[in-house]
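Example 4.3 (complexes with small molecules)
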Amino acid sequence: MPQLAIDSACLPQYEKLDRATRDRLLAATRKFRELSLRALFAHPDLRIRPLTGGQDPRIHTFRVSDSWTGIMLAPESGETFLLIHLLPRESAEEWAGGQRHDVNTVMGTLERRDATALDRHAKAPEPPEPAADPHLFDRVSDAALRQLGIDAEIIAFCRTLTERAELTGWAPAVPQDQYDVLLHLADGDSPDRVMREVVQPRRAVGGGDVGPDDYDRAIRNTRHRVVMVNDDEEVEDVLGREFDAWRVFLHPKQRDLAYRPHFNGPAAVSGGPGTGKTVVALHRVKHLTERLPLDGRVLLTSFTNALVRALQRDLALLLDAELLTDVDVVTADKLALDVVRDEHPELGFRSDNDVLGMFANVARKHGLPWPADFLVQEYRHVIMAKGIATVDGYLDPDARQGRSTPLSVEQRRDVWHVVAETRAWMRRTRRLPTLELHAEAARILAQRTEKPYTNVVVDEAQDLHPAQWRTLRAAVPPGPDDLFIAGDNRQRIYDSSVSFAQLGIRIVGRSFPLRVNYRTTTEILTWAGEILRDQPVTELGESAPEPPGLTRSLLTGRPPVLHGAADRGSELAALAAQVRSWLDDGIAPGDICVTTRTRRLREDTVAHLRAVGLPAAVFNPQEHTVDDTEIVRVTTMHGVKGLEFRAVAVTGVTKDALPQLDRVASAALDEGQHAADLAAQRNLLYVACTRAREALFVSWHGEPSPFLPAA
Ligand SMILES: Nc1ncnc2c1ncn2[C@@H]1O[C@H](COP(=O)(O)OP(=O)(O)OP(=O)(O)O)[C@@H](O)[C@H]1O
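Answer. The structure with adenosine-5'-triphosphate bound is encoded below.
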C-alpha cells in the first residue's frame, strides 16, 4: 500500500485554506494512502497529472479544489508519495515546473532545487571582473566540497559567488542541506567542523549509503523537513500546526540531542537565543518519559512561573495525557519549598528585601563598617554559593576566590558572625529566603535514599544560583541521563556564576552547541549581537570561553527601528505610534510586547498606552500566563526572559537607566562583582531585543545607553 509523507513547506499554505478546501485536501490525502497506484492515477476527482516539460518527471499535480492545486512527488518505483506544496492553481505549474528533487547520497536526504533558476545562472555570461577578485569558497577544494555532499552543479554554482549575501539571495534555489553546508563554510567554519555539525547529524539512520534512486529511504531520513503520516488524524495534526512546527520538524542536531538513547551522565545544550534549546528540552522530556521505569518521574524546570506554564502547555502538545502524569513541571524554588514544607509545614517565605534589612540591622547592632549590600553579597556569592557551613570553611584561603575586596582574618570573623547571627534569626522566626530554602531542601534530599526524580531537565539554566543547583542535583540519583541542561550564558541577567564541576555536575565531553536561530530575523539578530561586542561569552557552568561559532538565522526581515527622543513624553508618544502601526499591520495585540527598565516605568507605560486608547496591561511573569491574545503586554526587561513575540518594543534604553548604577556593585566595594553586574545589565538589553520574531523598536530619551551598538 502506498505511504504518504508531507513536506514542511505545506504547513503555512494549509493555514490559507478555508474549511471546505481543507476537507477536500484531507479526502485526497486519504486516497493517496488507501488506493492502489492504478486506481489513484485513474481517479476522476484527483486528476493527477505529470507536468509537461517540467524539470522533474516525478512531480505531479493534483486537484484539491477549483482554486488550489496540490504538488506531489510520485516516485516511479517506490511506495512513498510526498506532498511537496499547496499553491493557488494559477501559480502551481510554473513553480512546480522549475523544481527538481535529488537524493543527496552523502547525507542521505531528499533535497529540492530550483533547477530552472540554477540552469539560467549557469548559462548566463560571466560578468567581467578583475582576475584577482577572491571568491567566497576559494579556500575549500572541490574534493572537500564533494565530501560534504555538494554535488557537481552546486560546486560549479558556488564557484561563481564572491559574497555571503549572494549566497543567501539564492537560498530558495539551492538544495536545502547543501545550502546549510555552504552557509557554514561562508561563515568561516572549517570543513571538518561542517562535517561534524552539519553533515554527520543528517546521515541516514542505521548508517550506510543511500543510493541516488533510493527516494523512499531518503524521504524517511529527511525528518527535519518531511514527516510520514499514517491516518487522517496525523495529517490534520501536522498540517494544522504551522506555529508548532517544532513538534514535528527538528533540526538534525536538535533531534540528535533530544533523542540520543542515553547520555552517560549530565549533558548540556547551549546556543544563542532562539536556537531551540527549549524545544530540545521538551523533546528530551518526551524521550525520557517514554523510557521511564514503572515508578519513575521526570522533573522539567525553568526560571519563572510564566515559563513553567508555557512549558506545561507545550509539553501537553507533545506528550500523551498518560505520559504527562509522569512529569512535574515546576520552578526549582517551588520544588525546594515543597520538599522543605513536607518536613516543616510551618515554615514561611522571606523576601530578598527583607534579607537586606536584616543584615543592615545586625551590622548596625555590632557597629560594623560594611554596608548591608556588601554583607548580602558575601552571604550570597561566597557563603551560600559555596555552601560554607562553618567559620573555618569561610576562613579557608580559597573560600573567597574571585572576590576582589580583600578581608583580613579578623574581618572575616566579623562578617561570619553577622551572617551566622542573621541566619539564626531567620530560622528562629521560621521565615526563610529562597537560598535558605534551597540549602534546607538539598540537605533533606541528600539524606533520602529514594530520590524524587529519575531524570531532571533544566531550561533557562544560566541564571540558577549554586544553591538552586544543589537542590536539583540532590533530587536525582547520579548516573546516566540524570541531568539534561539547556541554557546560554549570553542571556545571564542575574548575578550568579556557577561552576558545574564544583557542584558535582560533570558535563565534560557532553556539552553541545545549537547554532540555527528559528525565531529572529537576521537583521535583528545581527544588530543585537553588537550589544555584546567585546564581551567574552563563557561556557554554561564553566569559566572557559565558549568555542567560537556564529548563531545564524535563516529568516530575513526589516532592520530594527531605533528612536531617540528629547524627553520621556515624546518617547512614549513614539512608542504609542509604533504599537498602533503594528496593530494596523495586522499584528495581534497579544503578539506585541513592550519592555521597560523598571517596574515603576512599566506601570507608567501601561497608563500612557491606555490613555491613548491602546489595549495594554502589565505582565508579571510570576503571576500571569502568556496566552492572552487580547492585550499588548508591558513588562520589565527581566520579565521577557525566555519568551518571544512577533513585535517587541524595548523602551527607556537611556544612559541613566542602562546600566542602572544603583543595581551595580560599586567598583570600590568589589571590582569583580562590579564587572559581573555590568555584564548582566548588558545581557539584559540583549535578551530583551532577541525576544522579537519580526519587528524590533528600541527607544530612549536624552542620551542613549552606551550598551547600544554604534549607529
Ligand atoms: N526545529 C524547529 N522547527 C520550527 N521551529 C522551531 C524549531 N526549533 C525551534 N523552533 C522555534 O524557534 C523559537 C525559539 O525556540 P526556543 O524557545 O526553543 O529557543 P531557545 O534557544 O530556548 O531560546 P531562548 O534561549 O532565546 O529563550 C520557538 O518559536 C520555537 O518554536
